[in-house]
Design brief:
- The protein is of the alpha/beta class and 460 residues long.
- The chain contains 12 helices and 14 strands.
- It has helices at 3-31, 38-48, 50-61, 63-88, 94-117, 124-133, 146-156, 158-171, 174-197, 214-217, 243-252, 275-280; strands at 306-310, 313-317, 325-327, 335-339, 345-358, 364-377, 380-386, 392-396, 399-404, 413-417, 420-427, 433-437, 442-446, 451-455.
- Strands 1, 2, 3, 4, 5, 6, 7, 8, 9, 10, 11 and 12 form a 12-stranded mixed beta sheet that branches. It has a two-stranded antiparallel ribbon with strand order 13-14.
- Strand 11 (420-427) and strand 12 (433-437) form a beta hairpin.
- Helix 1 (3-31) packs parallel to helix 4, helix 3 (50-61) packs antiparallel against helix 9 and helix 8 runs antiparallel to helix 9 (174-197).
- The longest helix is centred in the N-terminal third of the chain and has 29 residues, at 3-31.
- The relative contact order is 0.06.
Length: 460
């Protein structure tokens, strides 16, 4: 290993250790407030069990996985500190609660941002498996069903976890398989823990003292209060020395005079007498200031298009309206990653290992042979056509996808998750294609031993 490479690895490890020390300090301080409750002790069993194995394997794998794992550790430690506070104090106000949750939401954002900043990473599937599921630690802010919320977040990361397991099996990397299973096990244990101790939300100590200011000082100041809105003209229904109820009843006691403060509607403001207003469904207020108009949404950041090969990875990103993207210098070990493309068509010649469409819109990909399979993730209105062989097609979080299979690919496995409007075109004997829609709704029935699942008749 070169000296430069060694220095880079050391720098990563030092950063990870610093982050862990920072998180560990917070957890120790929280624990010092008093003895841990039964719920906190049960949470520690998760930390010291499958999650500890996840951290150990992350360190052994190293690289971006180790760096991200340190961020995940911060999030789990922040959850523990929150649970310690809940076990010792009564439920605080919403403003205080928001401040208590800031370290947790900050850790989630850090994990997800790290994944987005490291898309070219060779460990991208590992980063995505964690990033998609890390939202599970936000269960502490969910009521009344935090358990199902945790499971839903865990399921979101299952797609990438399966990819890690498949790659590990193909390459014989047992440590990566154990890494994926340990993280899944930690989330499953967390779900079981929530169902046992916090079924409808975090349980606070009703006999405890109020949350001290020092417990939230590290989370930053509370949000500034909005300036009071100017009072409208007319009777003050909620004012008066008697408070809002007294002011309301005083106004109602005026009888017919209660409407004296209302403005008269002129004929040009009456929709039933003005066809133009009926067409627009908007009545323009006289003298309305231009500043009252809603500010337009900021335009989405658009990066320059990229089309290049880095090692064994073809990267096609941010293409818009390019219908002639051709990849013909291919090899069995190469993968094709297509990201954030719009109204474009990509043609892949020869045989490649894997093709991924990620966050694309109104795009198409035409390819010959794909060894591992085609992945379609977070896309809208996309098409894919295989002229050779592909063993599997994964479609995840996609709305509108049409797949054209070849005769040699009719036995391919089509796996869908959280997707809609999926149509598969299969070649017939006469050379024409028959189009078949995949089910979106399912019926689950208990059979005495488990659940039997079948497509709903309306979706069949």
């Amino acid at each position: 290993m070169s000296a430069d490479r060694m220095e880079a690895v050391c720098a990563r490890l030092e950063a990870a250790v610093s982050r862990l020390e920072k998180c560990g300090g917070g957890g120790a301080a929280a624990a010092a407030e008093g003895p841990a409750s039964a719920s906190v002790e049960a949470y520690d069993e998760i930390i010291n069990g499958p999650f500890a194995e996840f951290m150990s394997l992350s360190a052994s794998i190293g690289g971006d996985v180790a760096t991200q794992a340190a961020m995940v550790k911060c999030g789990f430690d922040a959850c523990r500190a929150f649970l310690v506070t809940a076990s010792q104090h009564k439920k605080p106000s919403q403003d205080t609660l928001k401040n208590l949750l800031k370290p947790i939401s900050g850790a989630v954002q850090e994990v997800q941002s790290f994944r987005e900043k490291n898309r070219p990473s060779k460990q991208f599937n590992h980063l995505s498996a964690v990033s998609e599921a890390i939202g599970a630690i936000g269960w502490v802010a969910v009521e009344p069903k935090p358990g199902p919320y945790c499971k839903e977040c865990s399921d979101s990361g299952q797609f990438y976890s399966n990819r890690v397991l498949k790659e590990a099996k193909d390459k014989g990397e047992e440590s990566h398989s154990k890494w994926a299973r340990s993280f899944i096990a930690a989330l499953k244990d967390l779900e079981a823990y929530i169902k046992k101790f916090h079924t409808t939300g975090v349980v606070w100590n009703a006999q405890g003292a109020p949350v001290p200011a020092t417990a939230v000082s590290s989370s930053g100041p509370p949000p500034a209060k909005a300036a009071p809105a100017s009072k409208p003209a007319g009777p003050a229904l909620g004012g008066g020395a008697g408070g809002p109820p007294a002011g309301l009843f005083a106004a109602l006691n005026k009888g017919g005079d209660v409407t004296t403060g209302l403005k008269k509607v002129s004929k040009d403001q009456m929709t039933h007498k003005n066809p133009d207003l009926r067409a627009s469904s908007v009545v323009k207020a006289s003298g309305a200031s231009k500043s009252a108009a809603a500010a337009p949404k900021a335009a989405a950041v658009k990066k320059p298009p990229r089309f290049e090969r880095k090692g064994n990875k073809w990267e096609v990103e941010w293409q818009d309206g390019n219908q002639e993207i051709m990849i013909d210098d291919t090899a069995n070990k190469q993968i094709v990653y297509i990201y954030k493309c719009t109204n474009s068509v990509i043609t892949v010649k020869g045989k490649v290992n894997n093709i991924t469409l990620d966050s694309c819109k109104k795009c198409g990909v035409v390819f010959e042979d794909c060894i591992a399979g085609l992945d379609v993730i977070n896309c809208q209105s996309v098409k894919a056509q295989v002229s050779g062989v592909t063993p599997i097609v994964n479609i995840d979080k996609t709305d509108g996808c049409q797949i054209f299979l070849s005769k040699d690919s009719t036995n391919a496995d089509i796996i869908t998750a959280k997707s809609s409007e999926i149509n598969i075109s299969v070649p017939k004997a006469d050379g024409e294609y028959g189009e078949y829609a995949l089910a979106e709704q399912f019926v689950n029935q208990w059979n005495g031993k488990g659940f039997t699942t079948r497509p709903a008749e309306i979706a069949a």
